[in-house]
């Protein structure tokens, strides 16, 4: 039912047809839940309405039209599947941008996704592990107690008596994800090739990165490895606990891990009931984020409220519990250093340094006029910084900076997209717990201490010590490396001599050709002169003209003598 004419006009019909069924599905769901209502008054609303017209006729008597649009959006995301559900999960934490009612509605996406019942959990265990469920578990709940976008979780007890949870991947989810990714790639390609915004944003690279992330999320062995690593990073930590993985009972589609007992971080009433220090809880969340990014270089990149709990122990000094480590991010050393320096410069209002860092790291072209870029950044930041720090949304500031930098052809770095998403989640979660959270005051001391540690002489010595074993390993190869370098240098010298010889030969050939043209020109001029002198008598009459001709021949020889 999708308009083939519209696809043809995009000149992408062959690639679009391959996932036309999924595109039809998306448009059908939009029409079913009347989601075009969100576009009222926006550019392109009329064109979208015409595109949806055939689908609207199918759903003309749909009862969905009578419910509120926020509820319809949540149901549509659940129906479309994991990629759209995860987008809703991200949106639900942004209460400083969203209407409160809409944020509340989208929040239910985090643990209210309808479960699947077939095949049964007993069948999945036997298919995944090759043994019966009864041989591993003394008890097993057939009904899941939590259901997420790509998996659901069942309670169980091991034969030894330990309480555990079993996570299983939804059957058939791989095909749905693949179809959605293909559709997103096509849309991203259209945006990148048809718009200036798309050329800066690099949506194709972003979708490619997200494809890797979502496929990693479908591999529970990868999630189990991430969970074990995160647990090791925070071993005996007073601020974060990560459950233990039972590796003997894990496969690509099934994972068994320790069952945790805590309060969902979004349940503020329950947290208040046990007198949890919400201010400290919110600040601790920020501290955990920066520790993961700058100390461990291994950060939980799906920190929405459905994956975060708070321990019942020590409410005055609260402790987080993290689950669902399927999406993990890391940065290169250069990205880490750039990010820290940029944040420090923004916090300290050093706008010129922010501009220089953007240029140095390739976010904007190297020919960007620093003073103009600095002035643009200042005009955005100064009005925001005039507010009390607790009222400043770091996410909003980043958006404003991006819009400003886009005027200078800023290119979004796909490698940092995951980190930016996580930072938005952290701020949204912190403000949800403690509306007066001052992210700036919480983060600045951490960044300053990190910078001091980085420049500390003992830290530099430590880095040298880390590299000494590598240098020692390379010592036996040093003579051969020197010989290779000398050989390459000799070869380069021979090549250079050959090039110089060829250049000299070309110059000599050019000079010979010039001499030929010079004498040819002189001969032609002389012939022209002689044609003017058919006899001695006439030579006396035409002497001035002959003299001029011979003079021209002489000038020619002088001008082209080289």
Descriptive notes:
It is a single chain. The chain is an alpha+beta fold and 562 residues long. It has helices at 4-9, 13-17, 20-32, 45-58, 69-80, 82-92, 100-107, 121-129, 173-194, 196-201, 203-217, 220-233, 268-273, 278-296, 333-347, 351-360, 370-385, 394-406, 417-433, 439-455, 457-474, 478-531, 536-541, 543-559; strands at residues 137-140, 146-147, 151-158, 163-169, 240-241, 254-258, 262-264, 299-300, 308-311, 320-322, 328-329. Strands 1, 2, 3, 4 and 6 form a 5-stranded antiparallel sheet that branches. A hairpin with a 4-residue loop joins strand 3 (151-158) and strand 4 (163-169). Helix 3 packs across helix 4 (45-58), helix 5 crosses helix 6 (82-92) and helix 14 packs antiparallel against helix 19. Residues 1-17, 532-543, 548-552 and 555-562 have low confidence and may be disordered.
List the helices and strands and how they pair.
Layout: H1 4-9, H2 13-17, H3 20-32, H4 45-58, H5 69-80, H6 82-92, H7 100-107, H8 121-129, E1 137-140, E2 146-147, E3 151-158, E4 163-169, H9 173-194, H10 196-201, H11 203-217, H12 220-233, E5 240-241, E6 254-258, E7 262-264, H13 268-273, H14 278-296, E8 299-300, E9 308-311, E10 320-322, E11 328-329, H15 333-347, H16 351-360, H17 370-385, H18 394-406, H19 417-433, H20 439-455, H21 457-474, H22 478-531, H23 536-541, H24 543-559
Parallel strand pairs: 5-10
Antiparallel strand pairs: 1-3, 2-3, 3-4, 4-6, 7-9, 8-11, 9-10
Helix pairs in contact: 3-4, 5-6, 5-7, 6-7, 9-11, 14-19, 14-20, 15-16, 15-20, 16-17, 17-18, 22-24
């Amino acid at each position: 039912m999708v308009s083939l004419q519209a696809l043809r006009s995009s000149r992408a019909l062959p690639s679009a047809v391959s996932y036309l069924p999924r595109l039809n599905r998306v448009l059908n769901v939009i029409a079913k839940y009347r989601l075009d209502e969100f576009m009222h008054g926006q550019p392109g609303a009329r064109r979208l309405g015409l595109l949806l017209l055939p689908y609207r006729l199918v759903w003309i008597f749909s009862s969905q039209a009578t419910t509120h649009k926020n509820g319809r959006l949540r149901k549509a995301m659940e129906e479309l599947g994991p990629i759209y559900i995860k987008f809703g999960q991200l949106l639900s934490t942004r209460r400083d941008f969203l209407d409160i009612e809409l944020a509340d509605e989208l929040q239910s996406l985090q643990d209210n996704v309808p479960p699947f019942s077939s095949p049964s959990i007993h069948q999945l265990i036997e298919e995944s592990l090759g043994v019966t469920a009864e041989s591993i578990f003394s008890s097993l709940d057939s009904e899941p107690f939590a259901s997420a976008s790509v998996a659901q979780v069942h309670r169980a007890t091991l034969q030894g008596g330990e309480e555990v949870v079993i996570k299983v991947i939804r059957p058939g989810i791989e095909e749905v994800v693949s179809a959605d990714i293909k559709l997103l790639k096509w849309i991203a390609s259209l945006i990148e090739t048809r718009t200036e915004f798309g050329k800066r944003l690099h949506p194709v690279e972003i979708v490619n990165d997200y494809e890797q992330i979502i496929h990693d999320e479908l591999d529970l062995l990868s999630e189990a490895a991430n969970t074990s690593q995160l647990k090791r990073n925070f071993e005996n930590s007073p601020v974060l606990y990560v459950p233990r993985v039972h590796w003997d009972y894990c496969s690509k589609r099934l994972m068994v891990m320790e069952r945790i007992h805590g309060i969902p971080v979004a349940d503020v009433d329950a947290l208040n009931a046990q007198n949890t220090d919400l201010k400290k809880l919110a600040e601790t969340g920020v501290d955990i984020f920066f520790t993961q990014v700058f100390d461990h270089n291994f950060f939980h990149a799906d920190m929405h409220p459905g994956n975060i709990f708070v321990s019942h122990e020590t409410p005055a000094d609260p402790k987080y519990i993290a689950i669902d480590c399927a999406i993990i991010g890391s940065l290169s050393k250069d990205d880490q250093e750039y990010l820290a320096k940029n944040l420090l410069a923004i916090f300290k209002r050093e706008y010129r340094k922010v501009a220089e860092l953007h240029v140095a790291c390739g976010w904007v072209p190297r020919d960007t006029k620093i003073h103009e870029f600095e002035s643009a950044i200042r005009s955005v930041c100064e009005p925001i910084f005039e507010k009390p720090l607790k009222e400043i949304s770091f996410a909003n500031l980043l958006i404003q900076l991006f819009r400003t930098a886009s005027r200078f052809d800023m290119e979004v770095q796909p490698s940092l997209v995951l980190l930016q998403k996580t930072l938005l989640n952290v701020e949204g979660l912190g403000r949800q717990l403690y509306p007066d959270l001052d992210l700036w005051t919480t983060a600045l001391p951490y960044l300053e201490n990190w910078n001091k540690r980085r420049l500390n002489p003992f830290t530099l010595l430590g880095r040298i010590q880390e590299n000494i074993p590598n240098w020692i390993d390379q010592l036996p190869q040093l003579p051969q490396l020197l010989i290779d370098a000398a050989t390459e240098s000799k070869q380069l010298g021979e090549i250079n001599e050959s090039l110089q010889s060829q250049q000299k030969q070309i110059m000599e050939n050019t000079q010979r050709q010039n001499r030929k043209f010079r004498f040819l020109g002189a001969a032609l001029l002389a012939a022209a002169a002689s044609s003017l002198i058919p006899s001695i008598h006439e030579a006396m009459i035409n002497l001035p003209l002959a003299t001029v001709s011979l003079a021209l021949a002489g000038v020619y020889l002088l001008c082209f003598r080289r």
